[in-house]
Every structure is written in structure tokens, then in C-alpha cells.
């Protein structure tokens, strides 16, 4: 399609085409059908401006079957209570802080909560060491500001300000990476539910329905610890690592299947054995002990999270599709595993070699995997 064709297309259908063609659609686009079915079946009370009742939001996240037979796929696999507490928090005057080690689905849960509650997961501030106050409050359109002075028209609202004005869910990613003084901008927003605009002698008051979901990484603790004043404005929910290998295999295969479909990769079922293997290796190295509890292991420096297992398997499926026979095999995941485990070339390599020779080599039915790992290790 040429530029002029794109421009002559009506805006509405252009937005639809973009959503279909998007490399990674937003949760509310990818699961629009499920959200619509839930809204239709949902006769429980909804908090102000919520698209669904808390019960329906929890069902959207955890999965279930509606009375008319519509199947809602699970987005989050984990304790039901965690999701219930998270959803309930959003209906109170406290904000929600999702805390956990890397790769425990904090960002994922935050996106899906915002999609289910407000129908929009894009009111997002990405926290970094360089996040300025304007990213949380508002900025200015300088051309307008210089030409006409400060006015509402010259003001560029942040995603948080827009969420306040519209009674929606705002998201702040990696809250603890944001410098402490910038973090504290959130205190007034969360306690007074207002955002003062001194330049205009005005304010934006939060409308009912507004709330905020922040995520923070356990490993970043100490980088910019939350002030106690700010922490009190949040209800903290800790997302755990998957409790069992079966649960983790389930998470990985589901996500890989979804990702694979958007990348036109082969179906997962043929690769279950290999997924099991990746998860076993990751869990054993992470826990520092073999699955049978018999052999102690050293843990490498990288975080061998579920998210990493998902990338290794997706990468393996792509290899199998483009250079193999379409079936996921040991050789397709070996290089990915090595890359995830060996982050520090010196120390991690020794840990990996030891694991390879003492555990992988001796294990029944793992000869193909041992050989594949040896091939990529040299
Ligand atoms: N319990 C789980 N249920 C469903 N998906 C999960 C689970 N744990 C991890 N995942 C998957 O792992 C991937 C990565 O998760 P996500 O990016 O949300 O992690 P995170 O906790 O935000 O990590 P980080 O601290 O690195 O930002 C997502 O694709 C998500 O689907
Ligand atoms: Mg994250």
C-alpha cells in the first residue's frame, strides 16, 4: 500500500488494519472477543467506569468457561487468591504494586488488568533512571507555549494525567528505577487524587475509576527504594515463581503457542518433550539442586526465569521451522539454553560444564541433549 493510499483510507479501518497487522497487539486487541463475551455475560456490579465486574476481571486473568460455553483462556497461571487481591485493590483507593523477581509476569499481569478493567492498557509510563517528572505529570508543547503562553492547549498530559481525567487505569513500569524525587510526584496523585498545575493556577482531579498499577523488580531493590510515604499508598502483591515444574511447563507451552502463532511458527505439541527439558534445566540451575533432590548444583549469575525459558523455546521453534524438519529437537534449544545460562563467560561457563558432565550426561534419555550441548559449548 502506498502512502497516499494509506492516507486516503478512513481512519477507523486504518486503525483496525494496524491492530491486525501489529507485531504485538495490545491485550485488549488480542483478546477483544473474550473481553466482549465476558462483558455480555457479566451481571455483577461494576465499580465506576469499569468495563467488567471484579469477578469477570479475575475470570479474564485466570480463565474459565462462561454459561454460553465461551472459553476464556488463562492469562496468568498461579494462585487464584493473588489475582483476587490484585483486582480488589484496584477497586479501592489504594494503588497496586506488583513485586517479584524478573520474569514472574508482573508486566504481563499489569497489562491484562488494565485491559480488563479500563479496556485500555496503553496509559503507560516506563520507569528508568532518566524518567523526568513530566513523564508522570505533564509537559508542554513548546511552540504553543512560546507563541501563546501557558494554556490548557499548550499542555501535554502524561499517561497518568489522562488516566486521572478519564477515570482509567494508569501503569508505571519499573517504579523503583525512577529517581526518588520523581517517584514522589506520585504521592499527591495517589493520596489527594489530584494533579496541581501551578502554571495555570489549576488542577486535574482524578475521576472515579482512576487507579494505578506499578511494577517493580525484586532484584532492583535498593536501587531507588520506595519511600515509606509512597509505599503506604500501595497495596503490594508479590508474584511468585511457578510452584512446580508442571505449572512452569504449562506456562511456557501456552505462551510459546501464542507467540508462535503470531510469528507463523510450527505448533507446540510436537515439542512438549523439549519444553519439559528446558524447564527442568532452568529450575535445577535456579534452585541449585537436581529435581530428585540428590545432587547439589551451583547457580549461574543470570536469572533463569520463566520468561527466559519462553524465549529459548520460541527461538528453538524458529530454528526447527526454518532449518530443521519443523519438530523441536535438542539441537534447536541447546544454543539458546547456553546463551541464557552463561552470562558471565568465566564463572558461568564452569558451572554449566559441571552441570553438563555430572547431571546431563548421566541422565537416562538425555544423550541427544548432551551431544547437542557439547556441540555448541566448544
Ligand atoms: N505465572 C505466569 N503465568 C503466565 N505467564 C507467565 C507467568 N510467569 C511468566 N509468564 C510469562 O513470562 C513472560 C514475561 O513476563 P513479564 O515480562 O511480565 O515479567 P516481569 O515480571 O515483568 O519481568 P521483569 O522483572 O524482567 O520486568 C510473559 O510472556 C508471561 O506470559
Ligand atoms: Mg516487567
SSE topology sketch:
Elements: H1 3-8, H2 11-21, H3 27-30, H4 32-41, H5 54-62, E1 64-65, E2 71-72, H6 80-90, E3 95-100, H7 106-118, E4 124-126, H8 133-136, E5 138-140, H9 142-148, E6 155-157, H10 159-166, E7 169-173, H11 180-183, H12 185-191, E8 194-197, E9 202-205, E10 211-217, H13 228-231, E11 234-238, H14 245-262, H15 272-287, H16 306-323, H17 330-341, H18 347-360, H19 367-377
Parallel strand pairs: 3-10, 3-11, 4-7, 7-10
Antiparallel strand pairs: 1-2, 5-6, 8-9
Helix pairs in contact: 5-6, 5-7, 14-15, 14-16, 15-16, 15-17, 16-17, 17-19, 18-19
Bound molecules: adenosine-5'-triphosphate and magnesium ion.
Magnesium ion is lined by residues 106-107, 215.
What does this structure look like?
The chain is an alpha/beta fold and 378 residues long. The chain has two domains: 31-238, P-loop containing nucleotide triphosphate hydrolases (Rossmann fold, 3-Layer(aba) Sandwich), CATH 3.40.50; 245-377. It is 49% helix and 12% strand. The chain is built from 19 helices and eleven strands. It has helices at residues 3-8, 11-21, 27-30, 32-41, 54-62, 80-90, 106-118, 133-136, 142-148, 159-166, 180-183, 185-191, 228-231, 245-262, 272-287, 306-323, 330-341, 347-360, 367-377; strands at residues 64-65, 71-72, 95-100, 124-126, 138-140, 155-157, 169-173, 194-197, 202-205, 211-217, 234-238. The strands form four sheets. Strands 4-7-10-3-11 form a five-stranded parallel β-sheet. Helix 14 crosses helix 16 (306-323) and helix 17 (330-341) crosses helix 19. The termini are far apart. The model has no long low-confidence stretch (mean pLDDT 91). Magnesium ion (MG) binds at residues 106-107, 215.
